[in-house]
Amino acid sequence: MINNTVDDNGHAQAQIPDQQQQHHCHFQQKPIPKCLPKRIILVRHGESEGNRDDAMYTVMPDYRIPLTPKGIGQAKEAGSRIFDVVSDNGTSDKWRVYFYVSPYVRTRSTLREIGRAFTRRRVLGVREECRIREQDFGNFQVAERMKVIKETRERFGRFFYRFPEGESAADVYDRVSSFLESLWRDIDMNRLHHDPNDDLNLVIISHGLASRVFLMKWFKWTVEQFEYLNNLGNSEFRVIQLGLGGEYSLAVHHTEEEMLEWGLSPEMISDQKCRAHANRSSWNDKCSWYLDAFFDHLANSDDDDYDEVKSNFSD
Fold first, then answer.
1. What is the CA radius of gyration of the chain?
2. Which residue intervals are annotated with compositional bias (Low complexity) in the record (predicted)?
3. Which three-class secondary structure state does DSSP give residue 227?
């Protein structure tokens, strides 16, 4: 059995077990290039009939609710703006896109409108992905009952509160985390059939909550930090872009003012700025403040702060 590993240059390499090496195998597997995406773009669907009128949820299953005419226009405009991002405003020709889409009618329709901005040769492929679907609120939603339930959620906490017969944000986090693992396998094994000479852009068309928990998982945000995040607007998107040092960051493409509007704290924004320039090996050193979210105090030196550390145990 041959085990694949990734070397320091980001290439998958085959490791041949000692038993096979002893038998003098006469083949050598060539390294498979691991081409990291330049961008991962998270898109919320356009305005749906449910966004315009809550009563729609009482007569139609959530997954079947369509876009409004306004939502169709929003999605088409988003396609144009995403094209500008991935093409560097038309100055680059070496790029391709690959789409992942939630199976709901409104996300599929959003994809269709976004796709109008791209020619066939620009699209590497598309995959419907059930794990990035909307949070399950139950089957048909009764308006007055949902109002009471959502008020209860605000008191309980948005992340852990589970809707009766439905899901919590924590449940969505688990399935989005599973999707993220599959996403990396697609990249590692080059299932997207991506030419390393082109910039790879992954566009994930989903829902507000699924996008927020994706960001939470990606950047290792805490539950407390998640609670302060604002939802994406219809057809809004977030660009996670690869920095020069090899870390992904929102700060490569987005401004500090935008991130503040989304509910990121000054510490979270500082983290994004660190990621935009830091390499993977130095990120913990440059952004060590992250530890302070979990510890009251960590000594800087084993020697200098020995007495202080010991005194903490005696208090």
1. 23
2. 11-22
3. helix
**Catalytic residue of the set 45, 194, 207, 254:** 45
- Percent of the chain as helix, strand, coil, to the nearest 5: 45, 15, 40
CA distances from 35 to 8, 183, 204, 205, 249 (A): 13, 13, 18, 22, 17
> What's the rounded Cα separation, in Å, for the pair 307 and 294?
22
* Catalytic position from the list 49, 134, 167, 247: 134
Pair of tokens at residue 287? 């952004």
**pTM, full prediction:** 0.82
Per DSSP, 136 falls in state P
Angle at 92 between CA 79 and CA 192, to 5 degrees: 65
Question: How many helices (H) and strands (E) in the chain?
Answer: 12, 9
> Exposed, middle or buried by CB within 10 Å (0-12, 13-18, 19+), for 59?
exposed
Q: Give kind and range of the element (H or E) at residue 208.
A: helix 208-219
Residue type, 165: E
94: CB partners within 8 A, 6+ apart: 197, 198, 199
In the residue annotation, 45 being an active-site residue is answered as yes
Q: Cα–Cα distance between 240 and 254 in angstroms, integer? A: 9
Could you report how far apart the first and last alpha carbons of the chain are, in Å? 56
- 152 Cβ contact list (under 8 Å, min separation 6): 161
Nearest to 292 by CA among 267, 260, 266: 267
One-letter amino acid of 130: C
Tell me which of 54-68, 156-170, 209-223, 274-288 is least confident: 274-288
Q: Give 222-280 pLDDT, tens digit per residue.
A: 999 999 999 999 999 999 999 988 899 999 999 999 999 999 999 999 999 999 987 76
Structure-block tokens of residue 131:
């794990």
